[in-house]
Amino acid sequence: MGEKAVFDIHDITKVYRTGDVAVHALRGASARLYEGEISVMLGPSGSGKSTFLNILGGLDKATSGQVLFDGIDITEATDGQLTSFRRRNVGFVFQFYNLIPSLTARENVALVTEISTDPMKPEDALEIVGLGERINHFPAQLSGGEQQRVAIARAIAKNPRILLCDEPTGALDSKTGRLVLDALIDINTKLGTTTAIITHNAVIRKLAHRVFYFADGAIIRDEENSARLTVAELDW
Amino acid sequence: MRALDKKLIRDLKRLWAQGLAVALVLACGVATLILAIGSYRSLDGTRAAYYERYKFASIFATATRAPRTLTSQIKNLPGVLSVEARIMENVLLDIPGLAAPASGLLLSIPDHAQPRLNRPFLRSGRMPDPDRKNEALISEAFAKANGFATGSRFSGIANGKQVTFSVSGIALSPEFIYALGPGELVPDDRRFGIIWMREKTLEGVSDLDDAFNSVSVALLPQTTPAQTISGLDKLLQPYGGTGAYTRKDQISHAFLDSELKQLQAMARVIPPIFLLVSAFLINMILSRLITLEREQIGLLKALGYSSYNIASHYVKLVVAIAVVGVLIGFGAGTWLGNGLTRIYATFFHFPFLIFERNPDVYIIAAGLSIAAAIAGALKAVYSAASLPPATAMQPAPPTRYARAGITSRIAGKLFSQLSIMAFRHMVRWPLRTGFTVFGTSMAVALLITALFSFGSVNFMIDTVFFRTDRQDATITFANQLPPRSLHDVSGLPGVYFVEPFRTMAVDMERGSLSERVSIIGKLQSPRLSRILDLDLTPVTLAAQGLILSERLAEKLKVRSGDLVRIKLLEEGNAVVEVPVVQIIQAYIGLTAYMNLSYMDRLSRIGPRRSGAYLELDSGQLHPLYKAIKTTPLATSIAIQSESLQLFRDTIERNIVTMTTVYVVLAVIIAFGVVYNSARIQLSERARELASLRVLGFTQREVAQVLIVELGVAMLLAQPVGWALGSGFSWLVVQGFQSDLFRVPFVIERSAFGWSSLVVMIAAIFSGLIVVSRVYRLDLIRVLKTRE
């Protein structure tokens, strides 16, 4: 795939302090994410995947180390700069969908398109994830898989440079999970959006261009996947 | 519409009950502010316009008989714009169909012109014809109360002469917006009226040909009255002048002033209470909402919304609630304000009403309310805006509770685990518990402030009518008479006992302080009209010296034993020095007393009597009234039982109206505070309570957790409310203090009881609404929801 690194991450650490206790969530992780690629982050819970992703997405700041986005260091960015970084470049998908319960599917997507510079129409984004028919439903009226697809539509509607997905299938059964993964692969193929997916589920790595293995707050290994499978070929 | 704004509207729909509760509390603040300021301005504006258009004078003076030629000299005094000299005469009236004699004030108007000052406003009919001797204008309230119209006739005795009045017109006067009859505490429109007649007629009645006994002066703009007054006093002194006074001492003006002062006090005390409580409520609701929406806030930030976007989202929510409150308040305030102004119009006599509807009051009220709401929201909004997105996305850590050492062990034995849950929750959120207690106590306090006045009035009535002035009637002579005329009074039908009194107009001075008052001379040990000391024990009047009311003593800064200078205004300003021998309690006027025989000795004209207190045979009232109406002796007779009735009616009518308003306000506060605090508790603990249900607790037991917490807060609120209420009441009493009236600070126990009862009922009612939700808890759904 592309040779250009969207993210260049050098030796980042993250220490949380609660009272007298210091928790080392990341102990020096380095990685490169390339333009147009799907990367999968694998590892047990507590291995630092989510913290890593949060730092990439500008939700959190590294305690030390360096994160370059398109060659620009975002490690020292202010809250305001991080906000506009997220607004312009990042689409998030979370395990528990995190839809606003009082807004319909279309409105949840519009929440993002309204503050973006060159967004799709919310209807088009929902069409991409196969929810064109359910745009006026509230989250409570949608199944888990449908809610997650609304969340994906919301993430891609702004045409983000990068799509960050934290356990996007974690709360779903395998059938629904496949639908969601289909949507993510489809977007990557059609739009070429650089995508990072955190998962427990090792099978999913077979869809990725690149896989990062996490343990104890560090990336212990990364590998390129030359024989990618399609969602249908996955042995879930 | 933007998606975030749609969320806002749906949030508002979901929170409508809580939002409305807050909006109503805010509305009370807005309404009371508009009510007080609006009424103040309407009353003040109406009075000012009335004064200006009908030439209300600035300085007033009386004499016994001054020649007309003196007016040109008065005109030449410094600062004088115009002068109106007239004849003023008291008249005892015989009103057809009214057994008791009424009294009136006769005033002259120039024969062929409008008076230059204090012009009557002609409501109907026409000015008296100078050639028809009996024609008179009468005051509107008096005409209405007695059913008089143009052409009605009645008669009276003035200056010992029988006079017949034929009504040519009905009028009002800026001088008598508040018309108080002699010896009365509250206006009695049936038994006191103003009568205007042509100068020529009154000269004959009063034997004042080419002379006057009353003068009014208007001042040039920007002049102080002091110089004019001393000049006027000098001119009138040889003619029995009793000293000029300004509007401040003019009874009608002074009463209106004290009313205006009360409105101002109301604007300062009441609205802030509501604004404060609403700010607290908003803080409570919003903090909870933000806790619940923690993850949504995190998400919005993750999506690229800035802290400013988040903050303004919640501020908009608060402003929307505030706007609803402001609009309700505008409506209620305008409606109540018009109502109050109309009540004023019946109590005070104005020919027209100017409703001041200046938008600035509304702008100020709206601004203050929205500011209070935003102030209440600030902390919660700040915490929402500053939530770091990564943290916000995770569920909030479990609340830390603490055992309270030894007390916890004792509590464990005394209370069930469920009650202990409730207590710990209260202790864990001291600020919120504090708000709930404080808010509820405000409702209690507001009610006490409204209800205490019943106690004060009862106490005042008991003191004034049953302990101090125990006479059945007070008769006031037309002129001061020698003591032997009391025999004529004793000879009246049904009179058991006569107790004389004498009044003496004086300037009482101490150093640079001076007050114009009337000293009342009484018998050494009066039996009917007594004087009570500060402990309410009857006083025996010392052979010498002055007894002063507390208020007068304070104004002159004198204590018992000090000497004061007394200038006898009716006796050529002769000056005597008199010691103050006692300070006593008095609720009405600036009062001073001395022994009657001592007063007679001080006076150069010797013993005189101004009237007498009477003990009567109640079966003989009609013959007595008849005799008084035909004897040229008295200008008025005040019947104590009628005064009392009138006093009660007037005061209680006003208090009942006010109390109703206050009860509504207090119920709104109590409801708003308790409902919101219970809803928030329920929302915080739904999971906990559902877990209890799953563990096998009954609905009733689970509800107990909420009820115990609310109950404890309610109990704590009562003493706090009593204390605050006593404080507010004391402030109100201070606000009421004037030279005319003083309200005793007495709170009956029942006021505390009723206040607590009303608030408790409102609290129980609103609590039950919330508790009923415990019965409908959807266990599965609540437990599945991630907090």
- State the strand order across the main sheet of chain B: 3-4-9-6-8-7
| Assembly category | heterodimer
Residue runs with pLDDT of under 50 for 5 or more positions of chain B: none
Structural class of chain A: alpha/beta
Distance between the termini of chain B: 30 Å
Number of strands of chain A: 10
Structural class of chain B: alpha+beta
Helix content of chain B: 40-55%
Name the features:
heterodimer; A: 236 residues; alpha/beta; Rossmann fold; six-stranded mixed β-sheet; 6 helices; B: alpha+beta; six-stranded mixed beta barrel; six-stranded mixed barrel; 19% strand; elongated
Structure characterization notes:
The complex is a heterodimer of chains A (236) and B (787). Chain A is α/β, with parallel strands linked by helices. Chain A has a single domain (36-62, 74-233), classed as P-loop containing nucleotide triphosphate hydrolases (Rossmann fold, 3-Layer(aba) Sandwich), CATH 3.40.50.300. Helix content of chain A is 28%, strand content 29%. Chain A is built from six helices and ten strands; from the N terminus they run βββαββαβαααβαβββ. Chain A has helices at 49-56, 79-89, 105-113, 122-128, 144-156, 174-191, and strands at 5-18, 21-34, 38-42, 64-69, 72-73, 90-93, 162-166, 194-199, 210-215, 218-224. Chain A has a six-stranded mixed β-sheet, sandwiched between helices. The longest helix of chain A has 18 residues, at 174-191. Chain A is globular. The two termini of chain A are 26 Å apart. The mean pLDDT of chain A is 89. With 787 residues, chain B is α+β, with helices and mostly antiparallel strands. Among the domains of chain B are: 1-60 and 260-397, no CATH class; 495-616, no CATH class. In chain B, the strands form three sheets. Chain B has a six-stranded mixed beta barrel with strand order 3-4-9-6-8-7. In chain B, strands 13-14-18-15-17-16 form a six-stranded mixed barrel. In chain B, strand 16 (563-568) and strand 17 (574-584) form a beta hairpin. Chain B starts with a helix and ends with a helix. The model of chain B has no long low-confidence stretch (mean pLDDT 88).
